[in-house]
Amino acid sequence: MARTYTTKQGEMLDLICFRHYDRRQAGAVEAVLEANRHIALASYGPHLPRGLVITLPDLPAPRQARKLQNLWD
Question: What is the domain-level CATH number for residue 42?
Fold first, then answer.
């Protein structure tokens, strides 16, 4: 379920994603930017203003890396 987050003065989107998505989600910043197109997050620059309410969408589960098998084993 998507959550909302209210920014603090000077926070950066990548740090918000890093904390919210437990340091593991590739593509999280892009997903948050897409989910918040209506407020144009990118137009604020690297530091967000205080009190901006953004949506943090659910992301798909990370893919499991497949174990490679050698033909000669």
Answer: 3.10.350
